[in-house]
Amino acid sequence: MIKDIKTGPLLIVISGPSGVGKDAVIARMKQRHYPFHYVVTATTRPKRPTEQDGIHYHFYNRTGFERLITANGLIEWAQVYGNYYGVPRSEVEKALKAGKDTVVKVDVQGAATIKKLVPEAVFIFIMPPAVDELKRRLSARNSESPTDFERRLAKVEEEVATLPMFDYVVVNHQDRLDEAIEKIAAIIAAEHARIHPRTIKL
C-alpha cells in the first residue's frame, strides 16, 4: 500500500540585491492571496512616506532594536548601510507551529546567517535582468542619498557572487512581476512534492 507523503511547513527565504524588487514580489504575492505567512522585518532605517509600521516593516529606534538583540528576539540581524535589520523569532516560530509556509525577506547577508541556523529552509535569489536595469530601478526609487546609491550599486557584484548558497534563482523582469511570483509559487509547490521532505527546525 502506498502511503501519502506528508510535508511540514516550509521556511522560504527570499533574497537578492537592493532594488531588485523583493518588496514588490512580496506585495504582489499578498495581493494574489498566496496562502503563506509573510514575516515583517524589523529595522531602524527611517520610514518612507508610503510605508506603514507593522505592515512594511516593524520600525524601531536603535535602543529598542538593541533590546531585541539582547533578548535573543531575532533569528538573524545585521547592520546594512548603517541601519539594523532583523527577522523576529517569535513571528517565525508561531507561523511554523501553525503549519503555515513562512516567507522571510532578507538581504544576502541575512540569508547567509539563516542558512547556518536553518539549512533546510528554501533559499530563493531574486536576480535583476541586468545591472543597468537595477541601476535604473534604484535611481527611480529616489530613496537613498547619492552616497548610499553608489554604495548599493558597488555591492551588487558581491551579492550576485553569493548565488551558489541559494537553491533557486528567479529573474525579476520589469513589468513581468506576475511571472516572477508564479515561478516562486511553482518552486514552493515542487518542494512540497519532494520524496524526501525538508524538516524545518529552529
List keywords for this structure.
single chain; 202 residues; alpha/beta; Rossmann fold; five-stranded parallel sheet; four-stranded mixed sheet; 7 helices; 40% helix; globular
Describe the structure.
The protein is of the alpha/beta class. It has a domain at 11-39 and 100-192: P-loop containing nucleotide triphosphate hydrolases (Rossmann fold). 40% of the residues lie in helices and 19% in strands. The chain has 7 helices and 9 strands, in the order βαβββαββαβαβααβα. A 5-stranded parallel sheet has the order 2-7-1-8-9, with helices on both faces. Strands 4-3-6-5 form a 4-stranded mixed sheet. Strand 5 (74-80) and strand 6 (83-88) form a beta hairpin. The model has no long low-confidence stretch (mean pLDDT 89).
SSE layout and pairings?
Elements: E1 11-15, H1 22-31, E2 37-38, E3 42-43, E4 58-59, H2 62-70, E5 74-80, E6 83-88, H3 89-97, E7 102-105, H4 108-117, E8 122-127, H5 131-141, H6 146-160, E9 168-171, H7 177-192
Parallel strand pairs: 1-7, 1-8, 2-7, 3-4, 8-9
Antiparallel strand pairs: 3-6, 5-6
Helix pairs in contact: 1-7
Q: How much of the residues is beta strand, in percent?
A: 15-25%
**What is the top-level CATH class of the domain at 11-39 and 100-192?**
Alpha Beta
Overall 3D shape: globular
Question: In CATH terms, what is the architecture of the domain at 11-39 and 100-192?
Answer: 3-Layer(aba) Sandwich
Total count of strands: 9
The strand line-up of the biggest sheet is 2-7-1-8-9
Oligomeric organization of the protein chains: single chain
The sequence of SSEs as H and E is EHEEEHEEHEHEHHEH
Give the count of helical stretches: 7
User: Percent range for helical residues?
Assistant: 25-40%
**Radius of gyration using CA atoms only:** 17 Å
CATH superfamily of the domain at 11-39 and 100-192: P-loop containing nucleotide triphosphate hydrolases
Main sheet: strands, sense, barrel: 5 strands, parallel
Helix-strand category: alpha/beta
Show unreliable segments: none
First and last CA, distance:
34 Å
* Overall pLDDT level: 89
Which topology of the domain at 11-39 and 100-192 does CATH recognise?
Answer: Rossmann fold
